[in-house]
Amino acid sequence: MIKKNSPIPIYYQLEEHIKELIENGELKPGDSLPAERVYAEEYKISRMTVRQALTQLVNEGYLHRIQGKGTFVAERKIMQPLQGLTSFTEDMKARGFKPGSQLIRFEVIPATIQIADQLSIQEYAPVYEIKRIRMADDVPMALETNYISANLIKGLTENIVNQSIYSYIEGHLGLKIETASQIIESSIANQIEANSLSIKKGSPIMLIQRNTYLENGTPVEFVKSVYRADRYQFMIQMKR
Ligand code: GLP
């Protein structure tokens, strides 16, 4: 399988081979990988080369290392297409996961200048501040903070936000959510984010800011989210 006289570097050949085993399901999420030594002996290559291949796969999110335990196949990332304006609950259900939320904060606060500006309301007008850890099959995926005008969206309760905000707005209030703009940027988790998402401080995350509007153009929410970069990827369809 490893061709020593190939112009393709050996570490890269091994990397591609392991990737293939993951992609065709021979290696499954959670499986532990043989030790570096085992690969080195099997393919008669140096442990350094094996390490290089494995490190590359860790960096690409195919594998993860647990100190003192070994190297394991990572969970598959959730591929999120960015065409449709969907809620977390809808996204998880569409993928066969059980959506869940852990409510961290639910309060009505006076809008700061920044929030008022995002929601096109007066400074100090009442807004809900809702902070939730969003889960898929009980695994934390994202930490989201929503700001929603309390004069526009009346009657939100802890019970409602423990389920779906979008289904309350549309199903219960009969308003229509129509458009959103989203900014995605990469970052690393601080201690609080890491604790909420069950990842290590300094792990890669994606910061997502969404401004969502009703069909008449009224801003309905301003949301700051932190998504685990090891579990999420975004897909954009493009046409020339
Ligand atoms: C996604 C979006 C949020 C939105 C949320 C609504 O997670 N990033 O901006 O507030 O969905 O989800 P739900 O209806 O499940 O509360």
Strand content: 25-35%
Bound chemical compounds: 2-amino-2-deoxy-6-O-phosphono-alpha-D-glucopyranose
Quote the CATH topology of the largest domain.
Chorismate lyase
N- and C-termini, Cα separation: 39 Å
CATH A-level architecture of the largest domain: 3-Layer(aba) Sandwich
Question: What's the arrangement of strands in the largest beta sheet?
Answer: 4-5-6-9-8-7
Q: What's the total number of strands?
A: 10
Low-pLDDT residue spans: none
SSE run:
HHHEEEHEHEEHHEHEEE
CATH class of the largest domain: Alpha Beta
Tally the helices: 8
Helix content: 25-40%
**CA-based shape:** elongated
**Major sheet description:** 6 strands, antiparallel
Q: How many structural domains does the protein architecture include?
A: 2
The overall pLDDT, averaged over residues, is 94
Class derived from helix and strand content: alpha+beta
3D structure, described in words:
This protein is of the alpha+beta class. It folds into two domains: 10-73, Orthogonal Bundle (Arc Repressor Mutant, subunit A), CATH 1.10.10; 78-235, Chorismate lyase-like (Chorismate lyase, 3-Layer(aba) Sandwich), CATH 3.40.1410. Helices cover 28% and strands 35% of the residues. The chain has helices at residues 10-23, 36-43, 47-59, 88-94, 113-119, 158-161, 165-172, 191-197, and strands at 63-66, 70-73, 78-81, 99-110, 126-136, 139-149, 177-188, 204-214, 219-228, 232-235. A six-stranded antiparallel β-sheet has the order 4-5-6-9-8-7. A two-stranded antiparallel sheet has the order 1-2. The chain starts with 9 loop residues before the first helix and ends in a 5-residue tail after the last strand. 20% of the residues are buried. The structure holds 2-amino-2-deoxy-6-O-phosphono-alpha-D-glucopyranose. 2-amino-2-deoxy-6-O-phosphono-alpha-D-glucopyranose binds at residues 87-89, 144, 146, 164-167, 210, 221, 223, 225. The site of 2-amino-2-deoxy-6-O-phosphono-alpha-D-glucopyranose has 13 residues, from helix 4, strand 6, helix 7 and strand 9.
